[in-house]
Amino acid sequence: MYENGCAGLAGAGEVVDESRWFTYDIVAEDPKTHARAGVFHTPHGDIPTPIFMPVGTKSTVKGILPATLEQMGTKILLNNLYHLSQRPGADLVARMGDVHGFMRWGGPILTDSGGFQVFSHEEFFKLSNQGVKFRAVDYDGRWVEWTPEENMAIAQKLGSDITMQLDQCVGYPASRAKVARSVELSSMWADRCFAAHTRKDQALFGIVQGGMHLDLRLRSLQHLEDAGDFPGYGIGGYSVGEDHETMFESLEPLCAEYMPKGKPRYLMGVGNPTTLVRGVACGIDMFDCVLPTRTARTGTAFSNEGRINLKNARFRDDPRPLDEGCGCPSCAGGFSRAYIHHLVRQKEMLGGILISQHNIWYLLDLMRRARESIIAGTYSDFVSDWMSSSASNDY
Hints:
Blueprint: E1 24-29, E2 36-42, E3 45-49, E4 51-53, H1 66-71, E5 77-80, H2 81-86, H3 90-95, H4 98-103, E6 109-112, H5 115-119, E7 125-127, E8 132-135, E9 143-146, H6 148-158, E10 162-164, H7 176-196, E11 203-208, H8 214-227, E12 233-235, H9 244-258, E13 265-267, H10 273-282, E14 286-288, H11 291-296, E15 300-301, E16 308-309, H12 329-332, H13 337-345, H14 349-376, H15 379-387
Parallel strand pairs: 4-14, 5-6, 6-10, 10-11, 11-12, 12-13, 13-14
Antiparallel strand pairs: 1-2, 2-3, 7-8, 8-9, 15-16
């Protein structure tokens, strides 16, 4: 445990049973949707699902102390393997007590493979069956080569509770041939990641690719199931340029009808409230996205009125909190829309921090309420109420 980190997410002072590490218990299923509530067990605590995971790309959720994240109810957060491999480097992080000790966070951490960041470098990467060669254009510009084995070596040095296989993600739109090649490479690399990953206190998740093509998604999923006993599955290659309705055309049947029931399903990089609500109805358990903090830094907040932009002049004299009844540190602390409008317009860093705290709380609380309704057997009503409310105007 860390003085400024989570004080035992499985319960204060409670020791997690090693035999239960990386098992997933389903505690309730909604009778009218595919939503389920569960618990995923990790060395640093239990993760109740459905859950939203705040993104701390470089071992920090920008502007927010780990203790504040804990107070807001964060159960797990993300670090980014690509960025940490570049600065400060995986060896240094390992010497500092892995990602938990480095950032003073005692709860579970998930590190992604860095694949999305690598493949967003456009013309500055080269693919082969062996791996990927890319130029770190956002750092020193040098060329770096990763094989799946090297990627797993970095992941194991970082020491997160959950890490992801190296995969190839393609944007939308893309030709079927290009998406099929990404499935082929990702499947090939999944085999090698599974063989190279040996750290027993870290779970390796496979990643389902396939773009908007359900048959390619099923091909990817089948390969992962045949490759080995992955304790969970990421679903990648969504939120890469397509609209939400296009995404759900293949995502809903994939989760509802085909994905293994007894393992967590993690929809990668999706984070607006309505998509979370609909995703849970499909059977998604875990979500992450930079959206709540990235949009906060430009003055945008989630609310029960829908998404609001605090730069707008209509908030200049508004004494209300960001959202009536919200329990986040910003709203409960009495900070008004007028004050936050002033901070945002003057480009004061506190404005982005206050909105970031609120937006993260908003998604954490949304998933808490979703879980409660699943356990009560009323999630279909929860979805209907949400979709008919002003809060759903969040795109």
